[in-house]
Amino acid sequence: MDTLKEDLKKHIIEQLNLEDIQVADIADDALLFSTEGIGLDSIDALELIVLLEKFYGIQVTNPEEGKEAFLTINTMADYIEKKRK
Amino acid sequence: MSFITACCHINEESCVLNGDVIAQKNTESGDSWFKQLYKGLTLEYPKFYKMDMLSQAGFIGSELIKKSNPALSTRYQDDEIGLLFANQESSADTDIRFMESYVDKKSPSPSLFVYTLPNIVLGEIAIRNKWFGENMFAVLPKFAPEFFLQYGEIMMVAGAKAVLMGWLGILEGKIEVFVFLVEENSATGMQLNRENLITCAGF
Fold first, then answer.
1. How far does CA B30 lie from the centroid of its chain?
2. Which residues of B touch A18 (CB under 8 A)?
3. Domain B2-201 in CATH: superfamily?
4. For tag attachment on chain B, is the N or C end more exposed, with fewer CB atoms within 10 Å?
5. Does the CB of B39 have a partner CB in chain A at under 8 Å?
6. Could you tell me the pLDDT band of residue A22, with boundaries at 50, 70 and 90?
7. What is the signed CA dihedral for B35, B37, B39, B45, rounded to 10 degrees?
8. Over chain A, what is the mean pLDDT?
9. In what helix (H) or strand (E) does residue B9 lie, and over which residues does it extend?
10. CATH number for A34
């Protein structure tokens, strides 16, 4: 699970061009779409959807599901684990 | 009467502000040229990293003009500064990258897609500075002084007291950026006319 979270952070930094952010800067429970967290925006949300499909083969078809899944690194990792089963 | 009160040129190798070379590209750096310039400005604006090259060019040009003219942000109301930009290539540089993302990599990138219009750079500058004056981006066959003179005049008549203008030539590694500030009734600067604009542009 920890490896998955690390990989997720690396993919997010790379795909979203967060060049001034390091893996260590993203806490597992930091809110991704809050300015107090990582401060992602709606376009980044689309990138996250693409990222899940590209690297994990997961299609987010239900917007409500994505809303909950993209809250934090923890929730994203849980979502990936659940979808993989 | 309007005056050119500041100007900035960026090409593939150097950055010139009001005639002075302020930065040369470090070819040994792992950072892109525009990222080197961004770091040199010591700004805290993470959104810069998400921008395409066209928007980065306009962003850096506008920041350098502000650096040269610090009172710009306070001298005018937020709707008194217009934006007037043009180029020959539109957003082709990013259009190509977006096409590659879905043709070659089979993964269309939303963050590239949002930059597949040339006028997005105007939004980036307006959002950054909270400048809500009129704005216009034109795609022209070549640099045309008359466009800037005539459309700039229209903006001034319509209420702008300053217009940030620029030619943003960005395509597949080619960089031909010229950003300049035109102000009404300034005590300094070159009078805005065809000859001075051609001289200032250096094209």
1. 24
2. 46, 49
3. Thiolase/Chalcone synthase (3.40.47.10)
4. N
5. no
6. confident
7. -70
8. 90
9. strand B2-10
10. 1.10.1200.10
